[in-house]
Amino acid sequence: MLTFNPGWDENAQKIVSFQDVREIQEHLKQNKIDIGTPIEENSSGPASFMIVDPDGNPILIDQHV
């Protein structure tokens, strides 16, 4: 599984500026990408969702901050 962590750098340290996981989710939805179980759009803070690439590989978008 490939994992992306908005809000963290490559050492799992918080970064100041990043695109919120809900914005990423909305962008994918607008481009007709199936995001499975969506994150509540009006929520904030930690959240995650998963997509599957064309080869069947799962990709986790997992925000901890």
Précis, in short:
By secondary structure, the protein is α+β, with helices and mostly antiparallel strands.
Percent in helix: 10-25%
What coarse outline follows from CA principal-axis ratios?
Answer: globular
Largest sheet, in brief, is: 3 strands, mixed
Oligomer: single chain
Strand order of the largest sheet: 1-3-2
- What ranges have pLDDT less than 50 throughout 5 or more consecutive residues? none
Mean pLDDT: 95
Work out the helix count: 1
Tell me the strand percentage band. 15-25%
Cα Rg: 12 Å
H/E order of the elements? Answer: EHEE
* Intertermini distance: 21 Å
Secondary structural class: alpha+beta
Q: Write down how many β-strands occur, each being a DSSP E stretch of 2 or more residues.
A: 3
Notable characteristics:
globular, single chain, 65 residues, alpha+beta, 1 helix, three-stranded mixed β-sheet
Give the secondary structure arrangement, pairings included.
Blueprint (H helix, E strand, L loop, with lengths): L1 E3 L16 H10 L16 E6 L5 E6 L2
Parallel strand pairs: 1-3
Antiparallel strand pairs: 2-3
